[in-house]
Amino acid sequence: MRARLPQAMATQRLEDAIANVVVNPPLEVSPLDERSYRAITLPNKLNVLLISDERSDKAAAALDVAVGHFSDPDELPGLAHFLEHMLFLGTEKYPEEGSYNKFLAENGGHSNAYTSAESTNFHFEMVSKESEAQSETRDSTPRFREALDRFSQFFTSPLFTESATERELNAVHSEHQKNLQNDARRMYQLKKTNCNPKHPYSKFGTGSMETLWDTPRESGIDTRAELLKFYKKYYSANLMCLSVVGPFDLDELQLWVAEMFSGIPNHNAPNPCEEYRDIDHLLPEHRGVEFHMESIQEMRQLEITWPTPTYLDSYRSKPARYVGGLLGEEGDGSLLSALKAKGWADTLAAGAFDQMTFGVVQVSLTLTKEGVEHVDDILGVLYDYLRLVRECKNQEWLFTEEATLAETSFRFRERGPAIHLVSEMASYMHNLPPAEYLSGQYLYKEFNIEKIQEVLSCLTPENGNITIAGKFVSDKVTRKERWYETPYHVESVKEERHRQWTDRKSSTEIHLPAPNPFIPTEFDLIVEPLPDGEDDVEGPAEILRDDYMEVHYKLDRTFKRPKATVILSMRTPLAYRSPWHSVMCNIFTYLLEDALTEYTYAAEKAGFMYSISQDTNGIKLFVQGYSHRIDVLLAAIVKKMNTFEADATRFDMIRDNVERDYINYGKRQPYSMAMYNINYLMEDPRWHVSDYLKVLSDGSVNLKSLTQFSKDILSHMFITSLVSGNISEQKTIEMLKSVQTVIGYSPVPDIEQLHRRVVQVPIGKDIFTRNIHPNPEDNNSAIDVFFPIGPREDIVKDVIVELLSDILNKPVFHELRTVQQLGYCVFEGRGLVESVSGIYIIVQSTVADPDELLSRIDKLLSEAHKEIFDPMTEDNFQDYVRALVASKAEPDRRLYVRTWRFWKELEQGYREYDRIPKEIEALGTISKADVVDFFDAHIAVGGKSRRRLVSQVFGSQHPIANKKPVPEGALDVGNPIAFRRSCPMYPVGGIHDIAGAMSK
């Protein structure tokens, strides 16, 4: 009996936990939401949201702890973030460091976490369904239950081993090193220098080797001991919120959650914010100040922030968000409209953000060169606009319109990824009553003019702080920030300037927004939707083809939303014929979006989205939103394209923006540049950003040439379009034919077609491209090792590539990042260059140069048989197959997702709309031996079919002069264009080949 007692006691504890679960009142749910919800509280005071989603093949969970870097001990900056890292490195029940991620990978899953100021969020997602044949080979316990068990151990029995503690500090340090060149992070930390040092807002949250190891050791502080103390103090069940979703009934989810998570200790810990609730984060001397910050990138940014009370408890009226929305208006009469008219600003973003004890309202402006000289005038217009809002006697209709838009959005909200849903919900739950877990963040229910006026009373010159950021302030900086070494200057703004902003004559060009003409009012579905659980997976049909266009159409019967998506590809060789053409097309599309801002902002607020962008084949136009009035928005965009006339002032501003974008390419993360260089080596034609900068410097890009280009590019083209959703075939044809009528273009002669191709990398010869990182301040180096396999023409080969990538993913990450600690950025996956697929391994590092990184990758791959394939049982292999099958079988969550999946098939020319069932069928024929043989042929050294590209980027810490010679037989490419011309090419088919489409 003595041996059985612990089990009996455990069973009794589980029964008690289940019996003492509190089921909270029902949730407010959208009438179109097919999922079932239940909010419960476990006996240990853990709040839980259960979500049953029978249509999903994915399951996910997230747990949010109400503690972040605000609670770091003063002597250990970054401890909360470090703790987040450590929880992934083994628990008492599952001690193997990589077992959690390995288990998820075997089940088509992944995980992540983040640490913010006042919370830490852990989340994962996995495949949760399996075929009948697969389920027969294992016990009947769902794998998601085991995943929850593994996840729950983070919060009951983490190991925090000494070896992992010291090693994982390197990962935190690498993450900080990665962030050093990030202007947004530099600005955020800079603001923290200007605050009450007794308030935790002043802290440095990421952590580094210095803050978490070197300095504490010098002071006799044991980091691991402090980690355990922090965990015990704050990781209490009453400070946690858990959200779980999966294709299981609510009772089953509740049973699992009660079983797995009731054991989390509850210390009845007070909310950490109580430690600083009565401390002002800004004292009087920290208000009304102006920063000048020297940036890394080319930028001209003006940011104004005002501290406010926190409005987390005012979630029904959302006064700060309402005011932030008015400041962020972009239509006629708005703050942005007035500033653009004067030539002072390009873009504006505004919003409100709440912490537990204070809030912030923020306005951020991208300035023009002229705007830099008129900062005080800009601030004068801003405070004039705020005066207008304060003096408005009838704001209730504005609030009511905002509430209507929010209610419509909530009503017709579409499914997103399961992992995003649970992560958001776990975060929101801390500050909402259970009945409003879903709706509280979205709906506006109470108009409270007193609260609105309270917010507005905070938005004064004396209370606001200004940050001016850019390279142009370099002559004004006098200090360096402690953690990012950001050059800056700070001073208090004098009262005379305050009066200058507030005493100016009222602006006649600003006014509050007019009623929104795009608010949809017709929501009827034009066809009866399919019954619940059924899915119309048939691809789009071609309903029109002539010399001018091809139209593909798919009526939606699955998603039950009155929405539609329209994608147009305006194919023309003028978009990418030369670097000059590419630059002109880029500027043209920028100018079009800029000219449409005032008109389309109301549509975007009403739930529509649109974009006009350049690609290598022409101009791509994307419109999405409610089917009621989507045709009106499309017609307005096309009309603007046809009647476009460039304004000299706006042209100069947009040209400057485009040039800055190209210059800032050199400030990208090294791993991103390594990827870019792979594409530059393989695609033909492909222009380099340096080509664009040369064009912009030779005087050929001017208003006159742009005006002519805008006429030429629309004069000859062929349109390929896809329309999907709650829209009729007749209306689709009318919409698209009107595009042709309005623009009045001619067909493109076959001889003018631009045929894009991709290099066939030689078999058996490594191809190297080696480059210096243009940013001398970035000490990170990077490598992208890419194994191109070939075009996606063989379904079996395609799924083997995916399966192999899934198998390699976690071992690569675990070995190169967790064990060897080469750097924070370690990636493995399947990549596409146009339609040519392959497998890549990417590492960014400060501790190893690109040659050493290649050596480590080669060693890992050389040991793949011993470390990965040989230990893999047939059951393990089938886990990966099952996970990939289930992932592919997951129904499309949204109309948008399905439409883009169909579009990729159309764009790449395969038109395999039934690709997924074919891939699932192919996966059933693949054995472990097939995958191992494929690895040996295409990835392993000496493989009979191996093609390999190695892109190396040398950072300032690893001079390229020290590079090793490339291996014998390899090619070090000095001239990528000459290399391309020396190689055979894969043709890129599909809608790139317009002549072929026209001849059918």
UniProtKB/TrEMBL annotation:
Q: Which residues form the Coenzyme PQQ synthesis protein F-like C-terminal lobe domain?
A: 803-903
Q: Which UniProt keywords apply?
A: Hydrolase, Metal-binding, Metalloprotease, Protease, Zinc
Domain Peptidase M16 C-terminal as annotated: residue spans: 223-401
Domain Peptidase M16 N-terminal: from-to ranges:
48-197
* Signal peptide region: none
Output the SUPFAM superfamilies linked to this UniProt entry.
LuxS/MPP-like metallohydrolase
Q: Which InterPro entries match?
A: Metalloenz_LuxS/M16, Pept_M16_N, Pept_M16_Zn_BS, Peptidase_M16, Peptidase_M16_C, Peptidase_M16_M, PqqF-like_C_4
Keyword Lipoprotein listed: no
The chain positions of domain Peptidase M16 middle/third read 410-694
Q: Which GO terms describe its molecular function?
A: metal ion binding; metalloendopeptidase activity
* GO BP annotations listed: peptide catabolic process; proteolysis involved in protein catabolic process
Cellular component, GO annotation: cytosol; mitochondrion
The UniProt family comment states: Belongs to the peptidase M16 family.
Know the name of this protein?
A: Insulin-degrading enzyme
